[in-house]
Design brief:
- By secondary structure, the protein is mainly alpha-helical.
- It contains 7 helices and 3 strands.
- Strands 1-2-3 form a 3-stranded antiparallel sheet.
- A hairpin with a 2-residue loop joins strand 2 and strand 3.
- The radius of gyration is 27 Å and the shape is elongated.
Length: 197
Amino acid sequence: MVLLCAAGLALYGQDTVKHKIDSLPDRFYILENVTRDGETMPEIELDEIRVVKRRGLKQRFQWWRYRRLVYNVKKVYPYSLVVRGKFIEINDTLNKIEGEKAREKFLKDFETRLFGEYEDDIKHMTLTQGKILIKLIDRETQNTSYKLIHDYRGSFSAFFWQGIARIFGSNLKAEYDPEGDDYLIEKVIYEIEHGRL
């Protein structure tokens, strides 16, 4: 602040002054002369700075958990958008196909293509990321993962995959609750969608 005032005083008398900052050669700050109480001084508006006390162990742990949630949501959120797109694509195509055999063949081919494209990515997800993805699929499609499997692959497949999910501590019937348990996930998605994360 002292440096800015000194630079402004050196150039006193001009209406606006361009001051180049050495460490950021492509940025300029425009200092405007402002008169207060009969005295004219150069002035610049600075961003607000928050001063907070040092975090205790509990706050640091909560901050770490939140940062971990941000990391996990950022990793799986794009996949939920892919699921939404594929869901729309499948429904549009199924509406054009006549005959149960042709529909089953289309679904089988689509599933094979999908597994080939995303299987490696899904294999490398953690259990927590898988749980978040299940919730986000419900958010994006308005259908639980269990219902999607049941509708497209049948009740036996849905039952089988639900059993596998339960072994790993997940639930394909989990619903997304943006105002309850999933409040923080919704907050993170809001920040991602607005380009702040």
